[in-house]
Structure prediction request, 294 residues.
Amino acid sequence: MSQNTCNRRHALVTGSNSGIGRATVNALVGKGWHVFAGLHHADDAGDAYDENHVTTVTVDVTDEGHLDEAVRVLSQHLGDRGLDALVDNAGVGVAGPLEFVPLARLRTQLEINVTGQVAVTQRFLPLLRKATGRIVFISSIGDRMAMPFAGPLTSSKAALSMIAHSWRQELAPWGIGVTIIAPALVHTEAADKLQRDADEIVKSLPEAGRRLYGTTFSEMIRRAVKQEKGGSPPTAIADAVVRALLARRSPARVVVGKGGRMLSVLAMLPVPLLDALRRRLFRLPAPGSALEAR
Ligand SMILES: NC(=O)c1ccc[n+]([C@@H]2O[C@H](COP(=O)([O-])OP(=O)(O)OC[C@H]3O[C@@H](n4cnc5c(N)ncnc54)[C@H](OP(=O)(O)O)[C@@H]3O)[C@@H](O)[C@H]2O)c1
Prediction:
């Protein structure tokens, strides 16, 4: 569709080269939108999209130059129109025992999942304001439930959700709705990435780290990956995004995906009870059980 003549509603979806992002692009196109698919790298597989209704843009959320260029591309296509929706979906998950997580990896985690989301949203707010558009942040059920060895990831999602809650209140005067989508178990490419990264982390642990945490961490990841692989398809999350964008009022937070209801209830349990449940579920060592092995 040529620039300025496209009368469809418009959305930008970051992290569109796989998983939930790709499913969201396709779901929105299915509803008659024109979508700007933000691809992490210039050589990502954007050619899988229907080019009449999808414009691909390279958006590494940590790259200011990419954001400048994306604003230029969108503005050119939109002409006098604004942007109807921004789906802040891009994200990574760093796992590992916090005692040994390289600080550079922790910084990257927060840079992509928190600061990067704010950077994209800041850049596109003028266009969103023009159309009284909506923002969806893809957070996680983990924004309210910390898991062992997932400290970097869950802390980033908790921070992202808090930012979304602030933004919802700040943007209300302009009618710009802000929704947090909190996926539970979803089977995407992220499960394989988690397994691959975890294997690398175990290899890169110092001898003490491997001795103290290696077995427990590997077992925890094995179970987490298995659970994710049994999760909902990414289309379930994409459908929830579309519903949030089309709802009369933007919902504040939507939990979606397999296990979501149960995990939401568990998150409200007293902490000692919840810890005991997690220990059972992930076969974690009992409190005090490693005292001998110091
Ligand atoms: N799968 C789940 O169970 C689950 C549960 C809760 C929340 N989520 C959240 O859902 C979102 C989508 O995840 P997914 O499951 O669909 O996994 P995914 O397939 O790995 O999707 C993440 C996307 O973000 C991209 N990305 C990574 N770093 C980026 C950066 N710096 N700039 C721009 N894009 C970047 C990835 O590109 P590359 O592949 O090139 O790195 C990928 O396309 C994430 O925010 C994730 O935290 C997923």
Notes: The radius of gyration is 20 Å. The longest strand covers residues 177-183. The CA atoms of residues 186 and 220 lie 17 Å apart. The chain has one domain: 10-188+233-259+269-282.
